[in-house]
Write a structure and sequence with these properties.
Length: 312
């Protein structure tokens, strides 16, 4: 195996990607407790919600409150999803550290979910960049290219189109870009191929990967990306999420399983896995009755487990 990076960042997205996909509305105080406990466990990047209209996603209506609470925690990069310029304006006003504009490389998925073509989203990126620059804020802008490995509506998504949109987002002013397998179509070989090409375009501005575990390959895909030097991965605690219309669909890679994978392989995450497992147990109580995923919690850590050596 190639030499792996010495450390990696796990970005918790359960409060957004997870909670938006389940019916239970978690009260603000529990979300804030989640953020505080995740930070105490060593997580340093958390996506706290999304600035979409509350009538569309009542689960995330309190994103501003959670963001404000998260901003009080030292060393925490607080990110938020923004569907458009209006969302970006709120993120700037509240001084989010990072805002992520999702773009769906599948035109069919883009029209169905964002009611915009991918190129219209690129144009929105240019407006968001202009707004950020005019605001004087330091909020970073990331373009997150989703359905990068295929799409449930359109089927195939051509890698050439994904790469074209990646370049277009950078040209339009994104500080950085990431690739997402929104629907769990990727496998380690397709991840290697696409990330290799994407790195040629974006270099170190290709900052992360977002894998869903719909078909059980999320962690295998992480390893494939890690081998190419990608060191930032999204995950949701308890693997929550998925799709309310697709029974059995799971969400992102489970945070605790991802941390276990990385630490076991000697890649430091700075995260205390015991604290994370305790938080997972708490989350299960908060969302009682909702399906959770992941495997580490079932059997616990092996006796031989040793966390990776801390990166300096
Ligand atoms: Zn996702």
């Amino acid at each position: 195996m190639q030499t792996l990076p010495l450390c990696a960042t796990v970005r918790e997205v359960g409060l957004r990607d997870g909670l938006q996909s389940i019916g239970t509305i978690v009260p603000t105080e529990h979300k804030c407790a989640w953020v505080r406990a995740a930070h105490a466990a060593g997580l340093r990047e958390i996506e706290v919600g999304s600035f979409v209209p509350a009538r569309r996603l009542p689960q995330l209506a309190d994103t501003a409150e959670v963001l404000r609470e998260a901003k009080t925690l030292p060393g925490l990069s607080v990110s938020v999803l923004i569907p458009n310029l209006q969302g970006a304006e709120r993120a700037l006003e509240l001084e989010a550290d990072l805002m992520i504009l999702p773009l769906s490389a599948s035109a069919a998925h883009s029209l169905a979910n964002l009611r915009k073509t991918p190129d219209e989203v690129v144009a929105e990126m240019a407006r968001i960049r202009a707004a950020r620059d005019a605001s004087g804020r330091r909020t970073l802008i990331e373009g997150g290219v989703g359905t990068a490995f295929g799409c449930t509506i359109q089927g195939e998504v051509r890698p050439a189109e994904v790469l074209r949109l990646l370049q277009a987002l950078l040209d339009a002013g994104a500080d950085r870009v990431s690739l997402a397998d929104t629907v769990g179509y990727a496998d380690p070989a397709s991840v290697s191929r696409l990330f290799e090409q994407a790195l040629k375009i974006a270099g170190d501005r290709l900052c992360g990967a977002h894998f869903h575990d719909t078909r059980g390959l999320a962690l295998a895909n992480v390893v494939a990306a890690l081998q190419l030097g990608i060191t930032r991965f999204d995950a949701s605690l308890g693997g929550i999420g998925g799709c309310p219309h697709a029974p059995g669909a799971s969400g992102n890679a489970a945070t605790e399983d991802l941390v276990f994978l990385l630490e076991s392989m000697g890649v430091d995450t700075g995260i205390d896995i015991h604290a994370l497992l305790a938080l997972r147990a708490q989350l299960v109580r908060w969302i009682e009755g909702e399906p959770t995923h992941g495997t580490l919690w079932r059997a616990g850590l092996p006796k031989t487990f040793r966390p990776a050596r801390a990166c300096t």
